[in-house]
Amino acid sequence: MPSNFLRQASPFTTSLPLFPFINPPQETLDMSISPWSTSWCESIPIGTSHTKFEFLSKFTTTFGIANSFSCGSLRQRRQVAAIEGLDAEGTSDTDDVLQGNWSWEFSLRADLPHFPTEPKSSLSGLHEWARDPLVFKTQEIVDGLKETIQQKSRKSPITITWSKLIETTCLQSFNPANLRKFLRIFWCLWYPNCPIIHKPSFDPKDASACLLVSMAIIGSCLSPDERDNEMAKGWFDAVEEMVFDDDWLDEDLGVATPFQDVTAESQRLQSLQAAYFVCLYQNWEGSDSSKARIRRHRYNTLIAVARSLQRTSATHQDFSLLNDESMFEWARFIGMETKIRFVIRACFSW
């Protein structure tokens, strides 16, 4: 049995009692409204400890993913962004970050390189990109955004028009080096809050362009470099439309397609994960109109399509019935566990 599949860390856990005062004064039960009546709050002894929900105060007084969730301090985010050895494809190094009680000791060493203050020249990396295995994903993302922007509807929230300058900007924004950096930040800083992807088996070269770009946007939102933050905001709406225009998010597809095909179900699950990340960054980082659109329309689509995953019953089989360990299917277990975690997170943790 896999014992270290995905570790979930939630900022919502609390062990405090909900009702510290079981027997309130009898006179406080009077529901009449009177300026001379004693309220329940006034009758509480001063020395009594009060239950506090600090996460509620944090959520209502802060803005942005980095400030609303446990994503590390600014210094910690700078050092994670600077460790180029923790690439998107490697898991052994980043696993050290996620082990134990979310320790940051590894990133606070004095010998770590400083976060660069000047961006690399866009021309200096062209030759490196040509041989980079992620260059094909960069091209997929650029092509997808180009098609989305050029074919936007009259009521589309996208305000930019595709041009050579926009194409160059898009290429620079999602070049292989940036994809690696943003994915590294995603895994180290956001992943413990929302472990709905099986990290050990994740390969960015095999992931869909929609999932990859949505993860990159989350990572760029958490980047300590304000230029990355501003870059991400410029692509918020275009990435949203690109993701939700995916054929796998068609509500009618679940009726017409029997999701017994493992490949087809995996592709739809990736599309749903991408849609969830879009809802996440728009809800916490987007404009007021974007937040309203996500809550009124996009999230409804996400839930409607997610229901198709439950037709095959999002439940593990009874492993006690397996007499032969060789009969255990890791790929099936990973797919089912990922599905279960997504359904729980998307449907009950919004």
TrEMBL record:
Protein's GO biological process: DNA-templated transcription
Location in the cell: Nucleus
PANTHER family for the chain: MIP31509P (PTHR40626), TRANSCRIPTION FACTOR WITH C2H2 AND ZN(2)-CYS(6) DNA BINDING DOMAIN (EUROFUNG)-RELATED (PTHR40626:SF3)
Record has Nucleus as a keyword: yes
Residue intervals of the Xylanolytic transcriptional activator regulatory domain: 183-324
Recorded GO CC terms: chromatin; nucleus
Keywords per UniProt: Metal-binding, Nucleus, Repeat, Zinc, Zinc-finger
Protein name: Xylanolytic transcriptional activator regulatory domain-containing protein
Superkingdom of source: Eukaryota
Location, primary (coarse class): nucleus
Organism of origin: Penicillium canescens
Source species taxonomy: Eukaryota, Fungi, Dikarya, Ascomycota, Pezizomycotina
